[in-house]
Fold this sequence. Notes:
Layout: H1 3-9, H2 13-33, H3 36-51, H4 57-72
Helix pairs in contact: 3-4
Amino acid sequence: MGLLTEILLLPVAPLRGTLWVAEQLRREAERQACDPRWVQARLAALNRDLDEGIIDEAAFEAEEERLLARLGSPVHHGGLPPHGGAR
């Protein structure tokens, strides 16, 4: 970038920084949400909520289905297929 461009973009630098941070947080949240350990922990908590009467059977089944779908969807970390297999 040229000096003039940098000077013209200076007033929006805080916004650009905020958008960058928001994007990094979104990516990390997606990465964690697809982590099998996170999904398993959430399923365990969901079972406790059902046992304790915090949620009903319908809510349990809907959330369980959503979580199990995450386990079934392939996620590529670092450009490698799950379980380090070859492409």
